[in-house]
Amino acid sequence: MLQATSPLTTESEIVQEKSTSESVSWAIGIVRRQFAVIAFIAVVATSLGAFYAFMAPPTYTAESMIVIDPRRVQLFPKATFSEGQIDAPALESEIELVKSEPVALSVIKELGLAKDPEFLGPQDIFGVVLGFASHFFPASEPTVLSESEATRAALGVLSKNLAVKRVGFSYNLSIQYRSRNPNRAAQIANTIAAAYIAEQLEGKYDSTRRATQWLQGRLEELNQKQALAERAVVDFKKQHNVIIADGKLVNEQQIAELNSQLVVAHKQTSEAKARLERIEAAIRDDSFDTKTGPTVADTLNNQVITQLRTKYLEFVNREAYYTRRWGANHLAVVNLRDQIRDLRGSLLEELKRVREGYLSNYKIAKQEEQELEKRLAEAVSRSQPINQAKVPLRELESSAQNYRTTYDNFRQRYTESLQQQSFPISDARILTSASPPSSKSSPKTALVLVLAAGGGLVFGVAVGVFRELMNGSFCSKAQVESALQTACISVVPIVDDGKRQTLRDAPRAARDQGLGEDGSSSRTIVRDQDLIWTAVNSPFSRFAEALRSIKVAIDQNSGAAGSGGEVVSKDGKPLYGAAKASFIAKCKRKGCAIIGFTSSLPNEGKSTIAASLALLMAQAGARVILVDCDLRNPSLSRKFAPRAEHGVLDVIAGCVPLEDAVWKEASTNLRFLPVATKTRIENSSEILAAAATKVLFEDLQSNHDYVIVDLSPLVPVVDTRATTRFVDSYVCVTVWGCTKIGAVKYAFKDAPNVYENLLGVVLNKANIDLLSTYDPVGRDYYRNKYYAQYGMTD
Does residue 514 contact residue 641 with C-beta atoms inside 8 Å? Predict the structure, then answer.
């Protein structure tokens, strides 16, 4: 059942999947092609790793643990210097202190490491190898180190083998030392921990001692400055007559007291005035009934006014009662009214007497207030000179107080510093001591071998990729089509010498003389074991099948030109009119195609491909003539007709008829027109561009089915460019995995007329096994077991 692509699959996803597949195939192809290099480098790296693992001396690592406790006991409430929180930078500083040179020198001195051979001999694998070789090639005299040189050497070894690190995010420091002797490793790790704590205590003691000396000097200086400041205060008070009692100036105390008294007097005056105004208001109102009677506190407390008011209210109530009962004109009511009037007069007189007392009190309070204001003004006027002197006095007192406070603080710090100097406290302590390790820490044989093999494999792949990138040659059809924008019409495999077969072998003397088997001069081409005859001798071989692919491309090109259909150029654009007619005229001349075989550089197999193809075509019954037009280097003529007396040059010049210069191959009836010359031809391009040459090839075209022309390479000479007048199509032969892409592009750039008439490119001398690694289809495409059903052989 066919499955179509899901409509939800976007074009970008399809392109991405295709790109990923191509990338994977490209990587697999590189590994397959460069497998020998990758395997060799991996084996060498693994061998070196094994050599190191078995030759390197074993080492043992001992570990001692130190804890830096931020919750240390404080014997003294305050420290000379503030101690901050232990953070990551502080712990890094402690790690560097453990690895510092003073700690290392202390360990070297205590354990005598400067005389230990382990610290003076070779340390790495190269040193071990040199030491091993010294037994066979001893030096003249051993080198003797001085004491300082031995110490420096031991210091370098100790620093190299020491590792200090923080354990996670804790305050624990791990001290690890690596040595060839497990007991020595544990001893050195414990000694380093003890030396670190001693160095820390020594550093604290030294810092406290220097602080104590500095504080002592500052105390003496501050004591002198404090005495001078206090003396200046006393002199200033004496000079300006400043008297201080209980820490305050006397005039300030007097002013403060007068201010307090004045405030009290102001209050008393205000109260007296308020009572006077209230009693006057009561007298003016002349109202003594129960609702509007006087409400002054003093009048209410007056016994006479209280009795009169009580009686007054009693008569008023009685008068109201009698009025309601007997009427307003009753004699009892009239008498009550007279009594009420007399009581009102008595109350008014009593209030006036109280008012006189209030007025007297107000005057007295007012007079006292004025007296206090006068005394305060006099005190303020007397204190102005003293106030002007207060500013410099306060400055002198402040300076003296500052010196006194600073002196007290420094004296306290000095006392604490003396106490800490006599008993320094360390921040660190040994949590666990190192014990001799039971197994070696390095080299780890399995890990070394795995890393060596992995590293060698990675490096081998990198070298393989580098070689691929630096190749720059044609290795697949896709590269040809992408780089040259033309078709790769065939991939011709390389043929081993042992697989060449010969149907018959003529005597060498006859072959060399160009004679027939009976010794007659018949201009007959004699077969030999050369590669050219492989297609004829092995018609079912890959080589022959690749040549048939070239023939099919030639036939299809000629058929398309004569079909009357649409004709397109190499860039895919259709041709019309004169351009189409010209193209058809070149490709179809009475049904015969003139095909020129060329290459970008010499020795790429163009002559072999041209001759083999011509033989294959002739064997199939076609009328084929092979023309050697490589006038500078006629390799085909030297091979097929080494003793030829006449050739293409004589025919063009009209010296001999065509039939007198043509050689033949008896079994295939192939006709061959050689170049019969023994010297280099200078004007070869002019000869090929001549009109007589064009007439010759028109004659050949009219009497043959195929005209195969062996041309010169494009880059060295320009002869091939001069053949476009009579050659219909060109086939460019390149060597698989050898011909550089840049060389072919350069050749076609200088010969655009050849490129315009290019039929395609042939990849020659291809290694089928390696070629399969460049194609995503894989090895089965080129090496299929079912191909034998069709008679195909290598």
Answer: yes
Instruction: Tell me whether residue 561 is in a domain.
Output: no
Write out pLDDT tens, residues 741-792.
Answer: 888 999 999 899 999 999 999 999 888 777 767 765 545 555 555 555 455 5
Say yes or no: 46 and 82 in one domain. Answer: no
Number of structural domains found in the chain: 4
- Please, which residues have CB within 8 angstroms of residue 541's CB and are 6 or more apart in sequence? 495, 499, 534, 535, 792, 793, 794
Average pLDDT on 36-57 reads 86
Distances (CA, A) of 295 to 208, 241, 340, 522: 83, 56, 20, 172
Which residue type is seen at 187? Q
Q: Residue 379 sits in which domain range?
A: 248-388
42 and 132 share one domain: no
> Do 758 and 732 meet the contact criterion of CB atoms below 8 Å apart?
yes
Average pLDDT over residues 147-154: 86
**Side-chain-facing half-sphere of 131: CA atoms under 13 Å:** 14
Average pLDDT in the chain: 77
- Asked whether residue 700 is assigned to any structural domain, the reply reads yes
The verdict on residue 783 lying in a domain is no
pLDDT exceeds cutoff 70 at 569: no
* Cα 781–chain centre separation: 43
Quick count: other Cβ atoms within 10 Å of Cβ 12?
Answer: 8
Same domain, 52 and 93: no
3-state class (DSSP) for residue 432: strand
- Name the nearest CA neighbour of 610 among 556, 535, 686, 684: 535
How distant, in Å, are the alpha carbons of 2, 6, 7 from that of 10? 20, 9, 7
Q: What percent of the chain has pLDDT over 90?
A: 16
CA distance 542 to 782: 10
Q: Are residues 254 and 318 in the same domain?
A: yes
Q: At what angle do helices 11-33 and 445-471 cross, to 10 degrees?
A: 110
Say which CATH number the domain at 735 has. Answer: 3.40.50.300
Average pLDDT over residues 547-576: 65
Q: How confident is the model at residue 562 (pLDDT cuts 50, 70, 90)?
A: very low
Residue located via tokens 């009190």: 361
Distance between CA atoms of residues 442 and 174, nearest Å: 18
Instruction: Report the distance separating Cα 624 and Cα 670, nearest Å.
Output: 6
pLDDT of the residue at 523 = 80
**Omega before 634 within 30 of 0, i.e. cis:** no
Cα–Cα separations (whole angstroms), residue 612 to 52, 523, 708 = 57, 19, 10
pLDDT of 266 higher than 70:
yes
Decide: helix, strand or coil at residue 347: helix
Q: Which of 428-432, 591-595, 731-735 has the highest mean pLDDT?
A: 731-735
Neighbours of 515 (CB within 10 A): 19
Look at residue 544 and give its three-state secondary structure.
Answer: helix
CA distance 179 to 107: 15
Domain identity same for 144 and 289: no
CA pair distance 208, 419, nearest whole angstrom: 10
**Is position 514 within any domain?**
no
Distance CA 335, CA 685 (A): 175
Q: Are residues 626 and 685 in the same domain?
A: yes
The amino acid present at 203, given as its one-letter code, is G
Query: Do 304 and 187 share a structural domain?
Result: no
Pair 762, 596: CB distance under 8 Å: no
Three-state secondary-structure class, residue 23 = helix
| pLDDT digits 0-9 by tens, 533-557 | 888 888 888 888 888 999 999 988 8
Say whether both 66 and 97 belong to one domain.
yes
CB count, 10 Å around CB of 587?
21
Residue of higher predicted confidence among 198 and 83: 198
